[in-house]
Each structure stands twice: as structure tokens, then as C-alpha cells.
Amino acid sequence: MFILRNSIIHLLLICSLLSVSASEAGAQEDNGEEYKFVFSPSWFNFLGYNKVEGAFLGTTLKTTYTRFYRTSLMTSMGYGLKSEAWRYNVTLEHFIDPFFFRKLRISFYDETRSISEEFISDFENTLAALMIKEDFRDYFRGRGIYADYSHKIRENFRFELGFGYKEYYSLNTEADWSLLRNNRSFPSNPAISEGEEILASFHLKYDNRESVFIESNYWDIEFKIEREFKDFDFSGFHAKLERIQLGPGNQTMVAGILGAARTCGCHEQYLMDIGGIGTLRGYDHKEFSGNRIVLFNFNYDFNGDILQRIPFQRLPLYSSLRMALFFDTGLAWLSKEARGTVNSRTLPSGSRETGNSIKDMRSNFGASFFLFNGTFKVNIAKRLDRSTNKWYFTFRMFQLF
Questions:
Q1: Quick one: which of 29, 34, 62, 171 is 20 to 30 A from 234 by CA?
Q2: Are 154 and 122 spatial neighbours (Cβ–Cβ below 8 Å)?
Q3: Three-class SS string for 223-292?
Q4: Are strands 218-230 and 234-246 parallel, antiparallel or unpaired?
Q5: Are 385 and 363 in contact (CB under 8 A)?
Q6: Are 47 and 81 in contact (CB under 8 A)?
Q7: pLDDT at position 115
Q8: Nearest to 368, CA basis, from 321, 319, 316
């Protein structure tokens, strides 16, 4: 299978490179209309640094032929200087209808991946690893093929069907340098259960915004069902409900709850973690693990309505300062069938279950302070399960471009 797959990948990469050289000349048709290749290279989104690859250098290229404007070829390729390994992703994307409501996509890939990508951006994680030797992700190598079909039924409602094949490989911590903290080591990257997976999924998304460019009250709802076969045989579901509510003046409330469960999924790459950035902000990073989680987050952003009424505007940077209050609470635990097999594997270092009842929920409260429209952010959080626990400070910096 992978001999054929590699041949297809090489063909697509060659076509992409040829499209670059052909983009200037174009092609003259009999009716006098000129068609040409249009390509959009990007360097900024494909440069990184992490504990398993060290510095990762690469680029992405999107290629479209103007005659077939609904079809695009996206190629990404890069090299890890410490891992000494090439990684790539070749994706062919086609919109079935001229209104861009229905889309088919197929990807061939060999990538370094993480199960915790949604809680911290590539830019922020790279910055933390490069500056202070903090890597908030655990990694594995994923190689395979994935195809999906997405259909926007209405402007606010769409679903996706996906099917794929993936091979899992463990990765070791290879990087040993940072700009400011060379007296410590990166945490070890946990081993995963290696094997092959066949995946089928159904993903439903809904939000009732009239426009993404206009602030408004709206609901954001997602629901996903997954089914894994072959070496990893289990089912799972994931659900998210979020409410954005505009308050008086410039104030905004964002409240959300998410839950997820897998029938077993007790292998490292399928466990779900809470604690730290993006989850329970008053707890250690990935402090709790399980194949079942429930998490509630509440944020109330004053957007300067309070701080800017205090007459400190002459202080440096004060005019860009704003504040928010937050509260988080959640659970992470292992189901009975997972707990029966967990002795054959090791949970991440320091991780444990919270428990599976209301009394076992872990909670924290705190405040966030933002500078430059949220580019810089400081969270100050206090966990509520320890009366003597100190306040937990987290500094975050979001992408500038």
C-alpha cells in the first residue's frame, strides 16, 4: 500500500514544483482566455521548535490552476535538525459546487503530531520551547492517508465525514537547547502504543452567527463520533457547547462545556488530559488523565471597561491593558474497562484521575490581564482543592502575524 502511496506523493510533489515554474508562462486557449498556475508559498506557518525535532525548517505551498479554480494542491515539507527526519503533507482539495458548500479532500502525510494541539498554538508552543525549554505537547509520528467530505447545509451548519488509515510510531526527546534555560532538560516524550489504525468519523458543527466580522450573541456547538479499527478497536464521542454573550459596554462573557469519552482508548495516544493551559488554569500541566473527561470554562472579559476608568493612563502601556475573570472546573477518569487494562501501561509522569463524581471535580478561579489587544496575556489562578496552595501564574503570547 505504501509503495503506491509514496509513488502518488512523489507525483503530486513533482506536479506542484512544475506548477511553480509554469506559473509565469500560463497557457493560451483557443478562445483567447489565458489560464495559469497560481501558487502561494508560506514560510512563517511552517517553522518551529519542539523537544522531539529541535529546529524544524520547512515551507508550505498552495497551488491552483485558474481553469480549475475549485481544485487546489497543498504541499508541506520540512526537516527536523535534531531528529534528522523529513516530514510532509500532500493534500488535494476540491469544491464540488461553485458556491463552495461541498468539499472533498484527500491527504497523504508523514508528520510529527500531538494529541494536545487544540489547547496551545504552534507559535506559542514553539516560543516556549525555544526560550525557556517548556514544551506543552507530547508527540508521536503519524503516517497514513486520510479522506474527508464536508457539506455546508446552511451558512451556519455543516457536517464532515472522514475515513483514514494511520500508522503510529513513538518519538524520543532529541532537543537539548533553549535560549534562556540550558541548565535543565526537556521533559521526556512518553512512548505510545505503536500499531496501525483504521478510522471513521462523523463531525457536526453549528453556530448561529450572522457574520464572523460582527460581534453578536451566538451559540457554538460541535459533536463528533469516531470509530477505530485494526490494532486499536474502540468507539468515542466528543461534544462541545459554547455561548458568547455580549454584556453592557464592551464586556463579553464566554462560557463553554466539553465532554469526551472513549470505550477503551487506554493507550497513550488516546488518553485525554486536563490541567494547565487551556483547561484547568490553576493546576499543573496535564495533571489529570483519563479516557473520560468533562470540562467547564467561564470567562468574563471587561475589555477595558474597569481598568480604563482608573486614571492611570499616563503609565506606560496602561492604555492597552484590559482584564478578565475566569472559573474552571472539570473531571478526568478511567472507565471500568480501561482501568482493568491500565496496569499494562504507564500513565504520564505525575498524572492521575480526578475521580468520576461531582465531589471529585477540580476547580480554580482567577484573573487574566491582556496587553496589546490580547497579544500578551498573564493568568493568575488559584486552585480550590488545597487551602495552602500558592497562586499559579501563566504567561502567554499569541501570534503577531
A1: 171
A2: no
A3: EEEEEEEECCCEEEEEEEEEEEEECCCCCEEEEEEEEEEECCCCCHHHCEEECCCCCCCCCCCCCEEECE
A4: antiparallel
A5: yes
A6: no
A7: 81
A8: 321
* Site of grid cell 459554547: 242
Going by C-alpha positions, the residue among 219, 202, 199 that lies closest to residue 210 is: 219
- Per residue in 124-151, pLDDT (tens digit) is 899 999 999 999 999 999 999 999 999 9
The length of the chain in residues reads 401
CB neighbourhood size of 386 (10 A): 9
Amino acid at 233: D
With bands split at pLDDT 50, 70 and 90, how would you rate the model's confidence at 45?
low
- What is the C-alpha separation between 369 and 162, in angstroms, rounded? 40
Q: Which domains does the chain have, with CATH numbers?
A: 1-27+34-192 (no CATH), 236-401 (2.40.160.50)
Hey, how many other C-beta atoms are within 10 angstroms of the C-beta on 305?
Answer: 15
Answer for the pair 311, 342: CB distance below 8 angstroms, yes or no.
no
Distance set, CA 309 to CA 300, 303, 306, 369, 374 (Å)? 17, 11, 5, 15, 19
Question: Helix/strand/coil (H, E, C) string of the chain?
Answer: CHHHHHHHHHHHHHHHHHHHHHCCCCEECCCCCEECEEEEEECHHHCEEECCCEEEEEEEEEEEEHHHCCEEEEEEEEEECCCCEEEEEEEEEEECCCCCCEEEEEEEEEEEEECCHHHCCHHHHHHHHHHHCCCCCCEEEEEEEEEEEEEEEECCEEEEEEEEEEEEEECCCCCCCCCCCCCCCCCCCCCCCCEEEEEEEEEEEEECCCCCCCCCCEEEEEEEEEEEEECCCEEEEEEEEEEEEECCCCCEEEEEEEEEEECCCCCHHHCEEECCCCCCCCCCCCCEEECEEEEEEEEEECCCCCHHHCCCCCCCCHHHCEEEEEEEEEEEECCHHHHHHHHHCCCCCCCECCCCCHHHCEEEEEEEEEECCCCEEEEEEEECCCCCCCCEEEEEECCCC
370 backbone dihedrals φ, ψ, rounded to 5°: -115, 145
Residue that the C-alpha cell 497513550 belongs to: 268
Q: How many beta carbons lie within 10 A of that of residue 315, not counting itself?
A: 10
> How many angstroms separate the CA atoms of 389 and 183, rounded?
27
pTM of the model: 0.84
